[in-house]
Design brief:
Oligomer: single chain
Mean pLDDT: 90
CATH class: Alpha Beta
Helix content: 25-40%
Structural class: alpha/beta
Order of helices and strands: EHEHEHEHEHEHEHEEHEEEHH
Number of domains: 1
Strand content: 25-35%
Distance between the termini: 27 Å
Largest sheet: 12 strands, mixed
CATH topology: Rossmann fold
Number of strands: 12
Shape: globular
Length: 308
Amino acid sequence: MPINIPDDLPAIEFLANENIFLMPESKASHQDIRPLHILFLNLMPKKIDTEIDFLRILSNSPLQIEFELLRISNNDSKNTPKQHTDSFYRTFDQIKHKKYDGLIITGAPLGLVDFDDVTYWSELTEIMDWSQESVTSTVFICWAAMAAAWHFHGIAKHLRDEKISGIFEHKVVAPTNPILRGGDDCFWAPHSRTAELRREDILDAPDLHIIADSEEAGPYLFMTAGGKQIYVMGHSEYDIECLRNEYSRDVAAGLKPTQPENYFPENDVSQQPIVRWRSHGNLIFTNWLNYFVYQRTPFELSTKKTIK
């Protein structure tokens, strides 16, 4: 997919080396195509790494995307150069008058923090409420999924006794849902979190439907009936090194983390991890763009009506 991004975004050079098709803004402007306008709220500390992960996974569709980066106001990242966020990111006040085809809200390392204690909780809930009227479909990833489930449906998150980390098998429980159309009955996906949502709480929510589940990792994918809100509890966007880097970071911090499950061959951390989730990650985002964004959004965003 030709992803329309600023010419000097660092991800261009990095992903070009992986043979990922990205289209600089200067070239995309000459195509007579109405691109999908996708807003990306990046809550992760290492924003450049997260940009690369999601741009990589969004690159497998013939649809053209205009990718716009959003950050929380007055919340400078210690792990991303301020020049980068100032150059490429917008704040909510700068974009809230616009309409978007899709929105992705990333996870955040806040599993141990109560929602009311999150410094930007007020702004995040404002953005989530705004998305109900101004975005065709929103994907909430990991912590963002827990935050949105609490905000919209009153589903509480629960701290785990141990952090879940690794690659886990999942089963499709709603095989006719188009979000997994063309996929297998079972698939693998990464998880890395200290909190969880309980299966019974999601099942009790009248507006939510579980699409894929895991005996070990719990509910993985659930959504509202029309796909306006799509919740993904894992990290299908992760590259091969993400879990290794998190594990090494926790070891260096003296946290004595459990080794990521089903990740290192023979549980040997010196070996190269095995990627077994990439095809599923590509499928879920390609299907989201096609069936829940492109097929449902109006040609003129200014005429967009709310889709439940």
